[in-house]
């Protein structure tokens, strides 16, 4: 079933190409290797250390500019991305007190401003998002950080190259969560603070962070050289980067926000950029015919509707939730996307260590869905009304408007009357942390925010634990009960890998059977690139490493 993308959503390629030609500067001098990227975001993700714009921010202004204590191995396309040392060379939980972790730091690392990375820098960066009394505390960075590492509480210096991190409870997930805490230079921020105007220390701090964002210093493989909000970000290679394997061979990277799929595609075909995220599905044959390469890979990235369990929600009846999961024609949607999606059976696929063999089988079965809806008291004459808050573009949202419209039509045959509240991606992402009970939900009883599922907290815990209700983390719909909390605790306190996987498998099976989501698609991360871009590894991850790429 081929479904054309409406003209109201994606503008004609030729017109977009003409506009794109006017929007871009002349390519860099021939001798300079420059990689130009069109992102799906409508704005440049924040550059001050903790990016916004979801994980597209981590991918483009987090990982290239900054480092974290731990990071993902993005060097393989044929194996899962696993956790590896980064600014921490090793770590261990205290045998007697599993709320304490000791991290040994990597010696000899310098920030872009030349200052040294050490234990004091780690403590400073923990305080920037957790200690309200610290001069560098920045409320604007808390939401995108604390919700991703909710148990971290304090950092203590043992010596210059050793820190102790303390959690609020035993938490085996902490080393994974720390991939989201990027290390900014305290010395560079202090220079901005000393020069900042402001009536109070808080005013000066806010001004200092604004100045830092325009002239940041991380320790990553690329340095910021130019930043123009909503227009472009330019990076230069950090030739003294501490990891010899990731010292960039590309001299310059230019990142451009371009939320419309057809505009991105036109820019690629017109030679204005070398790499686009999420190309327009209908244009993929033309892209490959013109000699461009399309990269994709199975990845832990879920495209769902997350459902409300607040009082009065139409999703409180499990029969309705399961019916919606049975009524989505995922095969038809996959055809709409030119094959660039995987059909989910849950948050993780069968065969995954966390699968757990749930009893409920997510598939396309209209008759079974209609029977469940009839049992729940609904019919064609008496449909159930649901409202979903969605975005028009952004990050891992894939092609959100045509995909949601397709789901809307699919669900109609099972007595669902679906309404959409379409808002800007970063606003949707912010609303995700506020929860369904917040006015920002605008009456919606479901939200469509895609999410990465490469670690237990991100994949499951933050959506089902009663400890992660807003604003702590992303349990937008206030789902949870004592049984789920027990399953979460079993997993979180299992420091043995096999025992932890077993606990997570039980948790995943319970989640699929209870269906707090409508699992619609798994992303495969399609991106199209010029053949001039070499050494591209598309890992089984939401992230990708620019540092190891080359340009002809």
UniProtKB/TrEMBL annotation:
One of its GO terms (cellular component) is ATP-binding cassette (ABC) transporter complex. One of its GO terms (molecular function) is peptide transmembrane transporter activity. CDD domains: PBP2_NikA_DppA_OppA_like_8. The keyword Signal applies. It comes from the Bacteria. Keywords: Signal. The keyword Cytoplasm does not apply. Residues 1-30 form the signal peptide. Residues 83-445 form the Solute-binding protein family domain. Coiled coil: none annotated. GO terms for biological process: peptide transport. This is ABC transporter substrate-binding protein. It comes from Variovorax beijingensis.
